[in-house]
TrEMBL record, chain A:
Listed name of the protein: Isoquinoline 1-oxidoreductase subunit beta
Keyword Transmembrane helix attached: yes
GO MF terms held by the record: isoquinoline 1-oxidoreductase activity
Pfam families the record matches: MoCoBD_1 (PF02738), MoCoBD_2 (PF20256)
Organism: Pseudovibrio axinellae
UniProt xrefs under Gene3D superfamilies: Aldehyde oxidase/xanthine dehydrogenase, a/b hammerhead, Aldehyde oxidase/xanthine dehydrogenase, molybdopterin binding domain
InterPro entries linked to this entry: Ald_Oxase/Xan_DH_a/b, AldOxase/xan_DH_MoCoBD1, AldOxase/xan_DH_MoCoBD2, AldOxase/xan_DH_Mopterin-bd_sf, N-heterocyclic_Hydroxylase, OxRdtase_Mopterin-bd_su_IorB, TAT_signal
Superkingdom, taxonomy of origin: Bacteria
PROSITE patterns in the record: TAT
SUPFAM superfamilies: Molybdenum cofactor-binding domain (SSF56003)
Aldehyde oxidase/xanthine dehydrogenase a/b hammerhead domain segment(s): 242-325
EC number: 1.3.99.16
Segments passing through the bilayer: 12-30
Record's keyword terms, sorted: Membrane, Oxidoreductase, Transmembrane, Transmembrane helix
UniProtKB/TrEMBL annotation, chain B:
Provenance organism: Pseudovibrio axinellae
Keyword Metal-binding: yes
EC numbers, comma separated: 1.3.99.16
PROSITE patterns hit by this protein: 2FE2S_FER_1, 2FE2S_FER_2
Record's protein name: Isoquinoline 1-oxidoreductase subunit alpha
Record domain 2Fe-2S ferredoxin-type: where: 3-78
Family matches, as InterPro entries: 2Fe-2S-bd (IPR002888), 2Fe-2S-bd_dom_sf (IPR036884), 2Fe-2S_ferredoxin-like_sf (IPR036010), 2Fe-2S_ferredoxin-type (IPR001041), 2Fe2S_fd_BS (IPR006058), Beta-grasp_dom_sf (IPR012675), Diverse_Oxidoreductases (IPR051452)
Domain of life: Bacteria
GO molecular function: 2 iron, 2 sulfur cluster binding; isoquinoline 1-oxidoreductase activity; metal ion binding
Entry-linked Gene3D superfamilies: 3.10.20.30, [2Fe-2S]-binding domain
Length: 760, 154
């Protein structure tokens, strides 16, 4: 396990020396950083400089990358930010997730939740972003999501590296009795030019930590970067090709028991009665315990091994008390249709045009269409799991979580304890995609561990439990009406989206005491904040609670509205009789939309857009701005014998600054395949109050034989830094549907596309 | 109690006492503490649990341990000391893994493929590599397999 993991038992022993709380200088009250959590966790000989850097006497340098590593390469890039300024090669550092602490709050995550488009720099937008940042610090949310990790860390982790280097150089000046002009700093060693003598960072550490940190941060210019801007090997690459024990599911502790859960079909359904006789008769099954929490009710099975626990779970006879209406998918679609006929819940963006404008579009110039997307499961490769142990007054949890702070808060609240007494070790994640922002799997493990105390228990969900107890990407319907003038301009764009609210659902199960304030942007993300000139624009949300837990799914609302918006843009182009790329370029002429135009032009170039294709083949295009990254894609399909093969995908993405081109392109590629996977049949449906799909035989994703050739290019025109993990997903599905239209003339307006056309 | 059984794993003989119906995967992970093979689905649909038995790729999550008599190789057993297997080296060179959870199984499936077909075509790769990867690393897996085939002297 991790180096820090070893020391968790020493937590809060108050071993701290006065470490360089360097980043505090000049800040006031609410902007004062939290105490350095590494002070409490440090072991003998380690010197924590600030929450991100720890240097051992033996010159081992540990960088804390306090974001969940779930495949996006964030540990590598965050470490690179520190290493660049600290003047150490990446190969020389150890990277750890670090403890759960409010010091690692993610302001960018909440910032992106403000109801203003990314490019809107109006006073109001800046004000809202600023106040969100302060809220993030108060709540202490150190979460990983919204493709925000690098934007959040970009300045503060480089400053952490710089601050540590600064005090080390000061210490070296004292050590050699010289000035910094006579010193060379490289590879964690400082050499005196005149004498040629060297001293390592490790040897200077104890002296350096007492030196006052810099009051001014003189960060390197990008042109001087040695590590940033260049592709790096993942810091955990070797573990990932050797079957390393790095995931939550790989936890092994002395005297550990094993368990699984069998939960009610959804939140709101309770445990009425159960018979555990048959389960307890299975050799190896030790106990069955009740789970009653804010996220759900059910039973926990405790056993001597995971297999026995799974069998015990199957043998349970349970009767649920299900008072919920909306038992099947048809009723849920009806509820959304009804919501569309009611007054909107809220409106975002738009041009504020007189409502009469939208009601009086000449019929000949009108284009109307309705689009649908279903519920989707995250289906991470590593099923939900967590290991927990109650020991003394502390609950220890080891799990792959995207939100250790939320886990602390939820577990503390369940047991009426203090968050500080919930000790979380974040492992690497076998996929996250938003699922691991939830607290349920950690909470259930903590509840089961109460029964196994003082021994730890590792609670692993079956795949069936995982698929059927997800917090799903919401299903949604959009009705879009547009006006296309005879000259081919999209003059009016009126979009209504009916969907459950993710924020409402998450808040209700995570912070039952708090009610969300303001609109849930995610319902309209990928629609209201897109580059579009149209003179009259309106974006209205019709929120409808379908009594199904919904959550953040890679690219969130953009995965929904990207499909709606960009499918409609394609239909509008065809109605106008204009090439879809040309049409888009003509509808995004504002100066601030320049990055969108450039990615579209470039993707057209590299994909051979406009060049003739043999019969049965077609290309489709889409552009979505999400998480600050402008992303255009072209998909090429072949349709033979009414069966679609996705042959090739070209993507051009502009995140402003690319810190690691290799990892960035990997994320865009991954986002594309994650998005395209939806088309092949991904759909969560409900029947009699239960999810109909259970395992990969009924909820599958793209396989090797379906995987297209993918080319990714990056541009750096955008004035602000954007994310990597999610922006690849939204344009993929509309580009595919548009390509199928180009090849066949068949317009498919609902996901999964496989309901209307076959795929190989 | 269950009968004692010998398993040969990565060249070593290990004695276990387990329900003969227990899938090999759980015997490896929970009893023998060999964590390379991962649990993904339990129905042989994803391949995260792939190991080799006598050189053939097997999905250990549906293989009753009581029926296993051959030599088991897990990902822990394919490198020679510190030197990674050619397939693992190709995985490093192409920076294949993202979350990495499926990659033990992918690598084992690739090792088995190359033992059977030293110079696989694209179609061979598509046919043999049926393991699921939610990060969608397929293009890189394909490239790495071709590279490994070359390195192994195909």
């Amino acid at each position: 396990m991790s180096r820090l993991g070893k020391y968790t038992r020493r937590a809060f022993l108050g071993l701290g020396v006065a470490a360089a709380g360097g980043l505090a200088v000049g800040y006031y009250f609410y902007q004062k950083p939290y105490a350095n959590p590494l002070d409490a966790k440090k072991a003998e000989g380690e010197t924590p400089f600030n929450p991100y850097v720890m240097i051992d006497a033996d010159n081992t340098i540990t960088i804390i990358a306090p974001r969940a590593e779930m495949g996006q390469g964030v540990h590598t890039t965050l470490a690179a930010l520190v290493a660049e300024e600290l003047e150490v090669p990446l190969e020389q550092v150890k990277v750890e997730h670090g403890p759960s602490s409010p010091a690692y709050f993610n302001a960018a995550l909440l910032e992106d939740g403000t109801p203003f488009p990314f490019y809107d720099e109006s006073v109001l937008a800046e004000l809202a972003r600023g106040s969100m940042k302060i809220v993030a610090k108060f709540l202490g949310i150190n979460a990983t999501g919204g493709s925000t990790s690098t934007t959040d860390a970009f300045v503060k982790m480089r400053e952490a590296g710089y601050a540590a280097r600064y005090v080390l150089i000061k210490a070296a000046e004292e050590h050699f009795g010289t000035t910094k002009d006579n010193l060379i700093v490289a590879d964690a060693t400082i050499t005196e030019k005149s004498s040629g003598k060297s001293v390592t960072y490790g040897e200077l550490a104890s002296k350096a930590v007492a030196i006052s940190p810099p009051t001014e941060m003189k960060l390197k210019k990008a042109s001087d970067w040695k590590i940033l801007g260049k592709s790096q090997d993942r810091v955990e690459l070797k573990d990932k090709v050797t079957g390393g024990r790095i995931f939550g599911i790989d936890m092994q502790l002395p005297d550990m028991l094993y368990g699984t859960v069998r939960m009610a079909p959804r939140k709101g359904v309770s445990l009425k009665s159960y018979d555990k006789t048959a389960a307890l008769a299975i050799p190896g099954v030790k106990d069955v315990v009740e789970i009653k929490t804010a996220t759900g009710e059910g039973l926990g099975i405790i056993a001597e091994n995971t297999w026995a626990a799974f069998q015990g779970s199957q043998a349970l006879v349970i009767e649920w008390d299900d008072p919920l209406t909306l038992q099947n998918s048809d009723q849920m679609w009806n509820a959304l249709e009804t919501a569309l006929t009611k007054e909107a819940t809220f409106e975002l963006g738009g041009t504020g045009s007189d409502p009469e404008v939208f009601a009086s579009i000449p019929e000949k110039e009108t284009l109307s269409a309705q689009y649908r997307v279903p519920f989707l499961a995250h289906a991470t490769m590593e099923p939900m799991n967590a290991t927990a142990q109650h020991e003394g007054d502390t609950i220890y949890i080891w799990t792959g979580t995207q939100a250790p702070g939320l886990v602390q808060s939820a577990v503390a609240s369940h047991f009426d304890m203090d968050s500080a007494d919930i000790d979380i070790t974040t492992t690497r994640l076998g996929g996250g995609f938003g699922r691991r922002l939830e607290v349920d799997f950690s909470l259930y493990a903590a509840v089961i561990a109460k029964a196994t105390a003082p021994y730890p228990v590792k609670v692993t969900w079956t795949r069936e439990e995982d698929t059927q107890h997800d917090t799903y990407r919401p299903m949604a319907i959009a009705e879009i009406k547009g006006q296309i003038t005879p000259s081919g301009t999209l003059k009016t764009f009126d979009m209504h989206v009916a969907s459950p609210s993710i924020v409402k659902s998450v808040m209700a199960r995570t912070f039952p005491g708090l009610s969300p304030v303001g609109p849930d942007n995610s319902v309209l993300d990928g629609a209201f904040n897109q580059p579009l000139d149209a003179e009259n624009q309106r974006y209205q949300a019709h929120v409808s609670d379908l009594l199904v837990p919904v959550g953040f799914w890679r690219s969130v609302g953009n995965s929904v509205n990207g499909f709606f918006h960009e499918s409609f843009m394609d239909e509008a182009a065809h109605k106008a009789g204009v090439d879809p790329v040309e049409f888009r370029l003509a509808q995004m002429t504002n100066d601030e939309f320049m990055p969108a135009r450039e990615v579209l032009k470039r993707v057209a170039e590299i994909s051979g857009w406009g060049t003739p294709l043999p019969a049965g083949k077609g290309r489709g295009v889409a552009h979505v701005l999400s998480f600050g990254t402008w992303t255009a894609q072209v998909v090429q399909v072949d349709v033979t014998d009414e069966t679609v093969t996705i042959e090739e995908v070209w993507a051009v993405a502009d995140p402003g600054i690319v810190l690691d081109p290799g990892l960035f392109k990997d994320q865009i590629m991954s986002g594309i395949n994650f998005g395209l996977s939806q088309a092949f049949g991904e759909e969560i449906t409900w029947s009699d109050g239960e999810v109909e799909q259970a395992n990969f035989d009924t909820f599958d994703a793209m396989r090797m034989y379906q995987a297209p050739k993918i080319t990714v290019e990056v541009l750096e025109n955008s004035p602000k830094m954007g994310g990597a993990g999610e922006p690849g997903t939204p344009p993929s599905t509309p580009a595919l549907a548009n390509a199928i239209f180009a090849a066949t003339g068949k317009r498919i307006r609902q996901m999964p596309l496989s309901n209307e056309i076959d795929f190989i | 109690m269950y009968p004692k059984q010998n398993l040969t794993v990565n060249g070593q003989t290990k004695e276990i006492e387990a329900d003969p119906e227990m899938p090999l995967l759980w015997a490896l992970r929970d009893i023998l503490d060999i964590k390379g093979p991962k649990f993904g689905c339990g129905i042989a649909a994803c391949g995260a649990c792939t190991v080799m038995i006598d050189g053939e790729a097997v999905r250990s999550c549906v293989q009753p341990v009581g029926d296993v008599t051959g030599a088991i190789t897990t990902i822990e057993g394919i490198s020679q000391g510190d030197e990674l297997h050619a397939v693992q080296q190709a995985w490093v060179k192409h920076s294949v893994p993202q979350c990495g959870y499926c990659q033990s199984g992918q690598i084992m499936a690739a090792v088995a493929l190359l033992e059977e077909i030293p110079d696989p075509t694209d179609e061979d790769i598509s046919d043999a590599m049926t393991n699921l990867c939610r990060c969608g690393t397929y293009p890189k897996i394909r490239a790495a397999i071709k590279d490994a085939a070359q390195a192994l002297g195909a």
